[in-house]
Amino acid sequence: MTLTSALRLHNSGHIEQTDACVLDPEVNVLIGSGESAEVYRMAGGSVVKLFRDGFSSDLMKREYDAADLAAQMGLRVARPLGWQTLQGRTGIIFEDLPSRDMHSMLRLRPLTLIRGIQRLADYQARMHRVEAGLPLHFQRTLLEHRIETADVPDAWRKAALARLAALPDGDRLCHGDLHPGNAIETDEGLAVIDWLNACTGHPAADAARTELLLRYSGHGPLVRRAAIFRIPRNTAAWLYTRFYTRASGVSAADIAAWRLPVAVAWLQPRSSANVPLLHAAIERWL
């Protein structure tokens, strides 16, 4: 790769471009791709998460700050190492953790489900012991915005906002999108990636988000049509809640109180949820 530049993050929080570089396909291997970014393996034990054109620099900085805080507090993460621009796109450089994502491992070895979900819950409980605050965004603000923009009936929106207003604030580090696809197995244990939705907030809300993701996210045609194929996901969500409450001291009732606002906030256009099932659940929680 011909390197002609890098990015620097100033104390003011602004990302300033100081140079630029070009991807070399013989050196930089694409190892992941999502809606917001692509991830390339770089030389020298690092990867770059290269955000798509037009992506918010504020969200990029949120991911950097959250992953950096988690690393400083002793949580196993891919540590952010700096900023870089590649072919006009901004990216975060992370350490490269030789790993395999938990979701793939659970799918290939389903008998490891119980232990895998317990480890995920234990990690989240440790994360929620970390005091956060600025510069991360506040969970309540994010939820309010997402509820306002959710693709739901106005009555649901009003009910979710009213429920949210009655719930307490928090000051803990929350991932905002923790599920097996964002957990990776490394030689040193479980690590968590993709801190783009991280915030300062209440642990029970973050736990409710994980429970909902386990139960209602990423359903294929078979799972959508036949209840029997939903048993593994429902089991994983049930196990997760039991393990998390034991590890954290947060009660199941506290988690349940957050389900309605968190679920409504999830229902953005092009949501990854099984929308009919989540709609039915919301009707029960109203």
Structural write-up:
The chain is an alpha+beta fold and 286 residues long. The chain has 2 domains: 7-95, Phosphorylase Kinase, domain 1; 100-285, Aminoglycoside phosphotransferase (APH), C-terminal lobe (Aminoglycoside 3'-phosphotransferase, Chain: A, domain 2). Helix content is 43%, strand content 19%. Strands 3-4-5-7-6 form a 5-stranded antiparallel sheet, covered by helices on one side. Strands 8-10-11 form a 3-stranded antiparallel sheet. Strands 1-2 form a two-stranded antiparallel ribbon. Helix 4 (139-149) crosses helix 9 and helix 5 runs antiparallel to helix 9 (252-266). Residues 1-20 have low confidence and may be disordered.
The major beta sheet can be summarized as: 5 strands, antiparallel
Give the number of helices: 10
At the fourth level of CATH, the homologous superfamily of the largest domain is Aminoglycoside phosphotransferase (APH), C-terminal lobe
Can you list the strand order of the major beta sheet? Answer: 3-4-5-7-6
Return the CATH topology of the largest domain: Aminoglycoside 3'-phosphotransferase, Chain: A, domain 2
- Beta-sheet strand percentage? 15-25%
Order of helix and strand elements from N to C terminus: EEEEEHEEEHHHHEEEEHHHHH
**What structural category characterises the helix and strand content?**
alpha+beta
Mean of residue pLDDT values: 84
**Net shape:** globular
Domain Aminoglycoside phosphotransferase: 31-210
Protein name: Aminoglycoside phosphotransferase family protein
Organism: Sphingomonas crocodyli
InterPro entries: Aminoglycoside_PTrfase (IPR002575), Kinase-like_dom_sf (IPR011009)
